[in-house]
Specification:
By secondary structure, this protein is mostly beta strands. It is built from no helices and 19 strands.
Amino acid sequence: MSASVNGGKALVVGAAAQASFSATVTVSDPTGLEYIDAWLYRGPSTAPTGALAATQDPTCTAVNETTTRCTIPFQMGEGWLQNADAGTWHLYVNALARDRDYHRKTAASVSLQRASTVTANAAPRPVRKGEPLTITGALSRVSWNDSTYHRYPHQAARLQFRTSNGSYTTIKTITANSTGSLKTTVTANRDGYWRYSYAGNTTTAATNAPGDYIDVQ
């Protein structure tokens, strides 16, 4: 048996919409598959601290006479999540073959993360070449406890720059202060876009600010 949840990518949940995703499970048995179901759980399998059932019956397709691939739909929304639910969730699969042979196991896992946002604003503008350029911003993440974004303090963020035709490169890394604010100063030397980039962690998703264009005169 093999499986994946959300295509192997982290599941990011914000402050409003339900997050729809699916698990894909492939089961092999000499007699073929009769029945399958699966659910997600958090914590120890013997005493889970959270559980989530599928929203619909699986959709299954035969790969060959002995192997079947099934897609199992789920939804996870902030309406019932608490901040403590962020982290790793596991997929438990219960499959029954036509000869009544059971296949049961924890087959995959997925990282459930709180959505985050970061901003960036470069000033002054216009700025002359060689003069100081200050980039301010703020890092926030959603609280599922109250469905609101709050500042996220003491986290490292990368200041990045790109020209109009280039790719972003990291100039320096700074740490948000106790209120989640970001601020640093560089020397203006060419036109381009400035942004802050946050890499995320086990409970919080990565995010990038929109680039703020500066015309250096």
